[in-house]
Structure formats: structure tokens, C-alpha cells
């Protein structure tokens, strides 16, 4: 186990270190090549290939399973999110982490990518997220946030939680699963890299906000969506996903890329179009087959609005008025979701062909 950890930006004193592990974030100017090591999926990174994985947490799992860590005495991160907390937890509490390897990795994937996780991972993700949000709202020092999250991780891994928001989040996620499995929301796998989900008019009429919501990065799971991205990613994680929703006059549309595309994810399909722009986790987007499909949609469109395609992306932004990982939406002139007059069967045919 790594005996000490430190979160950059904390007002607490940083421990002196013989050899430091920088995880889940870019190292600062104190990084010593040949002495220290980076274990991160941020782009760019210098993580050794032998440890490479989709999340920083799994990278740290690989590191501790392949190394005697006695010579390493400090783990450093620079921000607060579930993958960051669990990456440092893995280094500092290695024995406990390895006992719950899959649960911890899946919780990290839920945080960074909105992936699906098993029930234990859902509890861990939700429990850490609500605690982080509470502590950040109180402006708690980041070092103390991590300390509290480590304590909470032990409790959550044992299935202990007294926060009603954890239970409510799990219930909301299960309701979302039930809508898909019952056919209340229609799912169709068009081909190996393209899936279509259709939200019917009854749900849209009941709540347009729950129809159109795109959650923020590492957001608490709530009953504020009809179709959570984690539920789509349960079956279609490595696909482009078209979500359509039937309005009174027309259909709303969003095209979602895999939520992991912002990171260095060597074990997952890399969808086309992302071009690293040189800024940490920043991308330009350009994919001519999709651009051609968008031109076709715009030519056929008879409603007032624009088929808006993203040109710059980060884990926190994409199209104005929407959010990552949506790369295409039909929007009004003030960048708000608008109803297209093109029916889903036509839109699916045009868009799916771009990714075959």
C-alpha cells in the first residue's frame, strides 16, 4: 500500500516523497521523469502501456497487482470525482480494493463514462457522488473530501448506507431499465455500431424535461430522466446511440457518442471523428460520413431549426444547449431542442449508414 496521499490544491501540507504516483490527472511541475510515474487515462498521459486500462482506477489496480510498492510513498491527484477517489483509494488501501476489484472498477466507469454497473457498483458510485457533492457545497478542503470518501468507501463496499438518496437513485435507475425491458421505451439494435432508442409521446407529454435532460459529468442519479445513459450503456456501450422522442408535432433527436470517448480507453471501441486538439482532454470533431448525413437531413428537413453537429468537445461540453457526449441534435435558432418533421425511420436509415 502507498502510505500517503495528497490532493493538489489542498491547504494541507504536502508530504515529502521519495517516489510519487500521479493518478487520474495531469502531473504538476514537481513530476520527476524516471523517478515518479503517471497512472492516468487523461489525454495526454505517459502511463506505461503495461498498466493501460480504460479508467485510472483500473490502471492503478494493474499497477499494484504487478509491483512491489514498497519504494513508492505518495499518491497524488488534482480533482474530486469518483474515478479519482477510487484510483487513490486503490493505491492507499490496496488489499481492500483488490477484494472488490470489479465493483470498484465499475463504479469508476459509472462516474467517468456513465457506464452500467452491478448493484454493488451502483451503490458505491451513488454513495460517493452524493457525499462529494455535499462536501464540495460546504467548500470542504479537497484533502478532507478524500479522507471522508475513503471512510465512506469502506462502508459502501460492505453494503452499509443510511442516505435515502442512494436508495432513490437505485430505484430511478431500475425504473429506467424497466421502461426499456417492458417496451415502454423502444430499443432497436440497427447494426453492431448503432442503436436507436425511442421515447413515446406519453412520456414526452408527461415531462419534456425528463425526456431531454443530459446529465452532467459524474452527476448523482435521480428520478429526473426517462432514459438514463447508464441504462443505454448496459447493452450499447460501444455503439453510437440515436435517441428520438415523439412530440405533438414531430420528433426530438440527439445522437450520443460513447461516454468514454474523451479518455484514453484502449479496451473499448474508438468511434470515429475525435481529434485531440492539444489541450487536456479536448477534441476537435470531424467525420465526413456523418457530416454528409447531416447535410442530407438538413436538405430534407421542413421544420424550423438546424441539425447541429459538434465541432469541439470536452468531457464537459459539446453543442451549445446540449452536453457531452451528444454530438448531433436538432435545435431551434436559440440553441434549444426543437421538433424535427423527419420521422425516426428515415433519420435512423440516414444516420446509421454513416457508421456501418
Task: Summarize the SSE layout with pairings.
Blueprint: E1 4-7, E2 20-23, E3 37-39, H1 56-66, E4 74-77, H2 82-92, H3 94-99, H4 101-113, H5 119-137, H6 142-157, H7 164-181, E5 186-191, E6 194-199, H8 201-206, H9 208-212, H10 229-236, E7 240-247, E8 250-256, E9 274-276, E10 283-285, H11 288-300, E11 306-309, E12 312-313, E13 326-331, H12 344-352
Parallel strand pairs: 1-4, 2-3, 2-4, 6-7
Antiparallel strand pairs: 5-6, 7-8, 8-13, 9-10, 10-12, 11-13
Structural write-up:
The protein is of the alpha/beta class and 356 residues long. It has 12 helices and 13 strands. It has helices at residues 56-66, 82-92, 94-99, 101-113, 119-137, 142-157, 164-181, 201-206, 208-212, 229-236, 288-300, 344-352; strands at 4-7, 20-23, 37-39, 74-77, 186-191, 194-199, 240-247, 250-256, 274-276, 283-285, 306-309, 312-313, 326-331. A hairpin with a 2-residue loop joins strand 7 (240-247) and strand 8 (250-256). The protein is globular and about 65 Å long.
Features:
single chain; 356 residues; alpha/beta; 6-stranded mixed β-sheet; 4-stranded parallel β-sheet; 12 helices; 13 strands
Amino acid at each position: 500500500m502507498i502510505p500517503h496521499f495528497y490532493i493538489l490544491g489542498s491547504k494541507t501540507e504536502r508530504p515529502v516523497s521519495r517516489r510519487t504516483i500521479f493518478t487520474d490527472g495531469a502531473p504538476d511541475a514537481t513530476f520527476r521523469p524516471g523517478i515518479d510515474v503517471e497512472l492516468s487515462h487523461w489525454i495526454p498521459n505517459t502511463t506505461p502501456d503495461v498498466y493501460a486500462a480504460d479508467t485510472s482506477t483500473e490502471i492503478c489496480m494493474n499497477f499494484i497487482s504487478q509491483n512491489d510498492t514498497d519504494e513508492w510513498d505518495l499518491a497524488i491527484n488534482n480533482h474530486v470525482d469518483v474515478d479519482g477517489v477510487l484510483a487513490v483509494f486503490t493505491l492507499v488501501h490496496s488489499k481492500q480494493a483488490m477484494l472488490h476489484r470489479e465493483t470498484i472498477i465499475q463504479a469508476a466507469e459509472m462516474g467517468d463514462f456513465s457506464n452500467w454497473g452491478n448493484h454493488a457498483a451502483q451503490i458505491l458510485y451513488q454513495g460517493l457522488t452524493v457525499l462529494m457533492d455535499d462536501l464540495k457545497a460546504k467548500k470542504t478542503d479537497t484533502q478532507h473530501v478524500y479522507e471522508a470518501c475513503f471512510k465512506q468507501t469502506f462502508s459502501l463496499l460492505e453494503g452499509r448506507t443510511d442516505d435515502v438518496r442512494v436508495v432513490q437513485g437505485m430505484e430511478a435507475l431500475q425504473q429506467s431499465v424497466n421502461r426499456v425491458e417492458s417496451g415502454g421505451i423502444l430499443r432497436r439494435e440497427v447494426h453492431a455500431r448503432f442503436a436507436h432508442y425511442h421515447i413515446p409521446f406519453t412520456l414526452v407529454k408527461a415531462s419534456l424535461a425528463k425526456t431531454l435532460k443530459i446529465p452532467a459529468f459524474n452527476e448523482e442519479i435521480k428520478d429526473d430522466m426517462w432514459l438514463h445513459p447508464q441504462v443505454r450503456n448496459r447493452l450499447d456501450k460501444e455503439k453510437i446511440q440515436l435517441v428520438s422522442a415523439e412530440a405533438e408535432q414531430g420528433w426530438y433527436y440527439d445522437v450520443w457518442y460513447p461516454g468514454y470517448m474523451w479518455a484514453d480507453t484502449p479496451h473499448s471501441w474508438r468511434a470515429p471523428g475525435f481529434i485531440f486538439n492539444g489541450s487536456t482532454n479536448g477534441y476537435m470533431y470531424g467525420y465526413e460520413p456523418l457530416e454528409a448525413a447531416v447535410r442530407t437531413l438538413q436538405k430534407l428537413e421542413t421544420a424550423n431549426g438546424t441539425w447541429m453537429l459538434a465541432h469541439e468537445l470536452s468531457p464537459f461540453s459539446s453543442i451549445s444547449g446540449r452536453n457531452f457526449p451528444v454530438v448531433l441534435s436538432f435545435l431551434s435558432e436559440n440553441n434549444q431542442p426543437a421538433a424535427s418533421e423527419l420521422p425516426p425511420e428515415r433519420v435512423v436509415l440516414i444516420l446509421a449508414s454513416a457508421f456501418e
